[in-house]
Design a protein that fits this description.
481 residues; alpha/beta; globular
Length: 481
């Protein structure tokens, strides 16, 4: 099957990831987007947030700062989220053994730093000694020079520029409140929980300036009508099926009359099948459905630049200047699942005849194809396997090839590419991305002159290398002369 340049979305990179020979993360486009992002003042964002109902602008919430550009929950990730244009930056807060509030998603520091142990059992001084890992971290993720910030430091970075959503912080809300008052940033922050309504209202009664988001799932859907004295400014609706009560059209329409409607598109189960990855393939299957069908006016995402660009491209009423799709017109993508139709031994060689990915795509053939939160990828890759593809080149010229890949391993794998049975590139060492779900567009070393028309290329996995990575697609970009 031939795939031309009609698919949408450019994958952001994990800036700072260790790069191995032959595969380079593409960071230039991201860096340019981040630096040129729209600037908000806190007054503008607050005014937007407090305005809800039909016609309200969709607000973008960046998850864990902007972990694709910097270590999650780092000051650098927060700065990147703000520069990208996010209206709200989501961060996670934990308390140390000596009572200080620091940014950490997990209850332990193991995944994201070079240390071990529970945050609650470490002092601030001990936490300060730790170095954060690239992106989402993990056992093999490279270290950076970024350190674990305190909540006060995070608020100093974002002050005057964007709002902040505090996750994991409900049980330490009083201490968090004190930090916000001390830093003059109470008006920047959204507290969040799914706690009993009476408990929430008791806290909100302590200060009318507190802004609050209530998390609603099927089991506490009754909370939607439970608030009497202090109405939340937003409801975060979590649903894994469209049959759940909190996402029914009439319910959501009534909510929008008094609050904002927040939906998460991070992974399966938070918003049924609507994910960032489904949005990058086709916005109508993700962000578009969330906004148009389900009336969301806040979206939490791991891809703030792409969401902002898509919103701008569709929303001329708010001065939209973005372009969508963002794939250059002379670029071509070939999805990994669109391999040759010539069959086993001719179009591909796999070490077994089972599609270990199940029913994601082409389930009756031997190449393993998985569904990673709606990214349909070639997976279970092993040494000695090979796959053939065809690509329709729109214009003769010199092309640079990249592959969107993911892996928590360093190194992650190695392969070579042969074009039209003649020109071979490689071996290409696959750079780890910190997670199988953290896709990164990696540039393949070298360029190839390709005439307009159909070309064949073969991807062959090195028999002697460790292989554990996924491939989403291959991208051909024409090099301007």
């Amino acid at each position: 099957m031939v795939t031309t340049g009609v698919l949408v979305g450019v994958a952001p990179t994990s800036a700072g990831a260790r790069v191995t020979a032959g595969a380079t993360p593409i960071s230039g486009a991201l860096a340019q987007t981040v630096e040129s992002g729209p600037a908000h003042t806190i007054a503008q964002v607050r005014e937007q947030f407090l305005r809800h109902g039909p016609g309200a602008e969709v607000l973008v919430v960046a998850h864990r700062g902007h972990w694709r550009a910097a270590p999650e929950n780092s000051l650098k990730a927060i700065r990147s989220a703000v520069k990208a244009g996010a209206h709200v930056v989501e961060i996670d807060v934990r308390r140390t053994a000596d009572g200080h509030l620091v940014l950490m998603h997990d209850s332990t520091v193991d995944r994201t730093t070079d240390g071990t142990g529970a945050v609650s059992e470490l002092t601030l001084a001990e936490v300060r000694q730790l170095r954060l890992k690239v992106g989402l971290g993990g056992d093999q993720a490279p270290l950076t020079d970024e350190r674990v910030p305190t909540l006060a430091e995070a608020m100093a970075v974002v002050k005057g520029r964007a709002m902040v959503n505090l996750d994991k912080a409900w049980d330490i809300r009083d201490e968090a409140y004190d930090v916000l008052v001390d830093t003059g940033t109470l008006d920047h922050v959204l507290f969040k929980s799914s706690a009993p309504v009476a408990e929430v209202e008791q806290f909100l009664a302590t200060d009318p300036e507190i802004l609050y988001v209530h998390v609603v799932k099927e089991e506490n859907a009754a909370d939607l009508d439970g608030f009497t004295y202090h109405q939340p400014e937003a409801f975060e609706l979590v649903f894994d099926r469209l049959t759940e009560p909190q996402i029914q059209p009439a319910v959501v329409a009534a909510l929008r009359e008094r609050a904002r409607v927040w939906v998460n598109t991070l992974w399966y189960g938070l918003a049924a099948g609507y994910t960032d990855e489904s949005s990058l393939r086709d916005p109508a299957q993700g962000w578009g459905a969330v906004v148009d069908r389900h009336q969301a006016d806040m979206i939490q995402t791991d891809n703030p630049e792409q969401l902002i660009n898509w919103l701008a491209s569709r929303d001329r009423e708010h001065g939209g200047q973005g372009q969508w799709p963002s794939l250059p017109k002379e670029s071509v993508r070939v999805q990994a699942e669109d391999y040759s139709l010539e069959g086993k031994g001719i179009g591909y060689h796999d070490l077994d005849d089972e599609n270990r990915g199940g029913t994601a795509a082409r389930q009756y053939e031997g190449v393993d194809v998985c569904d990673n939160n709606a990214a349909i990828v070639m997976c279970w890759i092993r040494g000695g396997e090979w796959v053939k593809y065809t690509v329709e080149v729109p214009k003769s010229g010199t092309y640079r090839v990249s592959a969107r890949m993911s892996s928590p391993y360093f190194p992650a794998g190695r392969f070579s590419m042969t074009f039209d049975g003649q020109s071979t590139t490689g071996p290409v060492d696959v750079a780890g991305t910190t997670s199988h779900d953290a896709f990164e567009l990696q540039e393949i070393e070298g360029t190839h002159y390709l005439r307009r028309g159909t070309h064949e290329f073969e991807v062959r996995m090195d028999e002697d290398a460790y292989q554990n990575f996924n491939i989403d697609y291959f991208q051909f970009d024409r090099v301007k002369q």
